[in-house]
Structures are given as structure tokens and as C-alpha cells.
Amino acid sequence: MHFQRLGQQVEVVDHMNKPMDALTLFSKAIEHLNKMCLEALKEKQQVDKGCMRWVLTIPSMWENFSKEFIRKAAEQVSFFALNKNFLTLRFFTYLVM
Prior knowledge:
Layout: E1 11-13, E2 19-21, H1 22-44, E3 54-59, H2 64-75, H3 78-82, E4 87-92
Parallel strand pairs: 3-4
Antiparallel strand pairs: 1-2
């Protein structure tokens, strides 16, 4: 995907050539990860969701648009929309050898 501005609608196409809004797709993927992690933690012990902080890591070399796109997708997940203090975005740099 290549984007210019966050305000524009961005679509992705699946293997059946069906288009979908990219922001919705990424938001649902983050929501699914959240759900799966909570279910795995519940199997081990009782979890207080109010005490948790989620950290999404984003490559620092990404353009600002891409970083903001991921932030906006995460904020659309109802769990994070209720309390933005549950979510932190961190940028990382990695070396390619």
C-alpha cells in the first residue's frame, strides 16, 4: 500500500479481488489480536483489563502517514476507544545486515 494523506479512503483487495477499506481491515486485525491475547491470558490466570497497557511497535523508518494510519486503526478498536491510556505506540529502528 502506498498512501499520500490519512484523510483519503484507502482500499486493499483480497485474493478474490474483493475490495475492503484498509483502515477497517487493520482495525479488525488489531481487535482480533487483542481478543486472542486476552483469551490466552485468561486461561493462565484472572486478568483485569483495566490494569493492562498495550504497546504496538512500528518501524521508525515508516513515513508519518503510515504511523498515523496504524494509530487511527488501533483507536477504532472499541477496547482502546474507551480509554486511550491503554494504548501506546513505540517506534523502533532495526539494522539489516
